[in-house]
Design a protein that fits this description.
It is a single chain. This protein has about 250 residues and is an alpha/beta fold. Strands 1-7-8-6-5-2-3-4 form an eight-stranded mixed β-sheet, with helices on both faces. It contains nine helices and eight strands. It is about 35% helix and about 25% strand. It has a single domain, classed as 3-Layer(aba) Sandwich (Rossmann fold), CATH 3.40.50. InterPro entries: 23S_rRNA_MeTrnsfrase_RlmA, Methyltransf_11, SAM-dependent_MTases_sf.
Length: about 250
């Protein structure tokens, strides 16, 4: 039986969006994955590390799923619901979870970690990352690239600037902080939304696509998009991702 617009909206507007698990969208939305396999590559680096820090860990889903964690593993998170989820997942693995407000200064001593990681950080504080890395240590991150999800944000907000998450800028900022960029790759990936509930859930969870999104704010746009999907099929957008690895040169500890 086909679900009504009101049913789809009601469900998607009330389901929990805590954590960074998108399994609620299974069968309702899809997104291509970058070819490099961030989880696998991070797992390889974690297995070699002695002390690691994961910044903005979300609900700890990624770290908790890695085969091996270093003897010292610390994760930071700012949003209380995610903080609780991360703690429940990571403490049994021997990892410490620390509340952090995502602004400098990181609450750690200099040269404390030989690996710092972050998947989809809101912002990368390069000088702080360089400070907490040991000489010879690395920052490894998959980040949101320029114009990611632009078709979706344009639908709700109209034409706007969306190219500020530039890999070239990330390289320049890393180098300005004294790090050497040893890997930088980019990908543009197809996204499909197959019902309006999937759109609502995604925008509630990925809050930077349409800042300030709510069902109440965009009733006409949501109704129109629902009718478009019902008539024409999935709404297609494109995400952008880039992988960056930057190494702190060998030398005296900071």
């Amino acid at each position: 039986m086909r679900r009504t617009y009101d049913d789809l909206v009601r469900e998607a507007a009330t389901v929990s969006v805590a954590g960074w698990d998108f399994s609620w969208l299974d069968g309702r939305a899809g997104e291509e994955r970058p070819s490099w396999g961030y989880s696998r590559l991070l797992g390889e680096r974690m297995a070699r590390a002695r002390a690691a820090l994961d910044i903005q860990t979300g609900g700890g889903e990624l770290l908790a799923g890695l085969p091996t964690l270093p003897p010292v593993t610390v994760a930071t998170e700012s949003w209380p619901p995610n903080l609780r989820l991360a703690a429940s997942r990571l403490r049994p693995r021997g990892a410490r979870v620390v509340h952090d407000d995502e602004e400098p200064r990181l609450p750690f001593a200099g040269a404390a970690f030989d690996l710092v990681s972050s998947r989809h950080p809101v912002r990368t504080w390069w000088a702080e990352i360089a400070r907490v890395l040991r000489p010879g240590g690395s920052y490894f991150s998959q980040q949101v690239g320029p114009w990611s999800g632009y078709e979706l944000s344009e639908y709700f907000l109209g034409p706007h600037e969306g190219g500020h998450r530039d890999p070239a800028r990330a390289r320049a900022e890393a180098e300005a902080a004294g790090l050497e960029v040893v890997d930088l790759r980019s990908a543009r990936l197809r996204m499909e939304f197959r019902d309006i509930g999937a759109v609502i859930y995604f925008l509630r969870k990925v809050i930077w696509i349409v800042p300030g999104f709510s069902v109440e704010r965009f009733p006409d746009e949501l109704r129109s998009l629902h009718e478009r999907i019902e008539t024409e099929g999935p709404f297609v957008a494109h995400s952008a991702r880039f992988l960056i690895e930057a190494r702190k040169p060998d030398g005296p500890a900071a």
